[in-house]
Amino acid sequence: MKHQTIIAIRAILFFTVLTGIAYPLLVTGVAQLVFKDRANGSIVYQNGKPVGSILIGQSFTSDKYFWSRPSAVDYNSALSGASNFGPTSAKLRKQIEERRQSFIRRNGLPENAVVPAEMVTSSGSGLDPHISPEAAMLQLDRVAKARGFNSQQRQKVAELIHLISVGHNQVILGDARINVFELNLKINQLQ
């Protein structure tokens, strides 16, 4: 019995060191060497100061910026999560209609405009940084007007939307998307 206990303790210590210390250090080291930016949260710096992460959605409410998808957690990464309203929820239907009306009004769209789903519903995490190219194009006139862009500058922004649009593997993972934070950073650089 004493011999089996010693073997069991040695096995626990060995696997604790292997899986609890050595393996995490190895994976972290490889990630730092191969994917340094992503391993550190894809933080974007301007003038040496962090301004956000390309991986986490942010709230943009000014007319000068493209808006992100709504967040059920107010873009708080510590509280990541969804609203948990089901498809039969009256509160969810009301929330969607209010967001739709606001989007239409603020973007000067006709009352019968089709608003992409990601602009009226929050994501499962509440932190999704992407919208569809269609949602960005619906916001283009508002952003161009608020920034005082002429038609040539507006066309540059439209081209930028298509340029930075990232297509998923269309067969398996879904449609094209645009990182709103990245788009807004690039538009700031245009001015």
Can you describe what's shown?
The chain has helices at residues 2-34, 36-39, 90-107, 133-147, 151-164, 180-190, and strands at 43-46, 49-53, 130-131, 178-179. The strands form two sheets. A two-stranded antiparallel sheet has the order 1-2. It has a two-stranded antiparallel ribbon with strand order 3-4. By secondary structure, it is mainly alpha-helical. Helix 4 (133-147) packs antiparallel against helix 5 (151-164) and helix 5 packs antiparallel against helix 6 (180-190). The protein contains six helices and four strands, in the order ααββαβααβα. The model has no long low-confidence stretch (mean pLDDT 89).
Features:
191 residues, two-stranded antiparallel sheet, mainly alpha, 6 helices
Write the layout of secondary structure elements.
Layout: H1 2-34, H2 36-39, E1 43-46, E2 49-53, H3 90-107, E3 130-131, H4 133-147, H5 151-164, E4 178-179, H6 180-190
Antiparallel strand pairs: 1-2, 3-4
Provide the structure class.
Answer: mainly alpha
Beta strand count: 4
Q: What overall geometry do the principal axes of the alpha carbons give? A: elongated
Strand content: 5-15%
Number of helices: 6
Kindly report how far apart the N and C termini lie.
77 Å
Q: SSE string, helix = H, strand = E?
A: HHEEHEHHEH
| Strand order, sheet with most strands | 1-2
**Low-confidence runs of at least 5 consecutive residues:** none
* Radius of gyration based on Cα positions: 23 Å
The biggest sheet, with number of strands, parallel, antiparallel or mixed sense and barrel status, is: 2 strands, antiparallel
Helix residue percentage: 40-55%
- On the 0 to 100 scale, the average pLDDT is 89
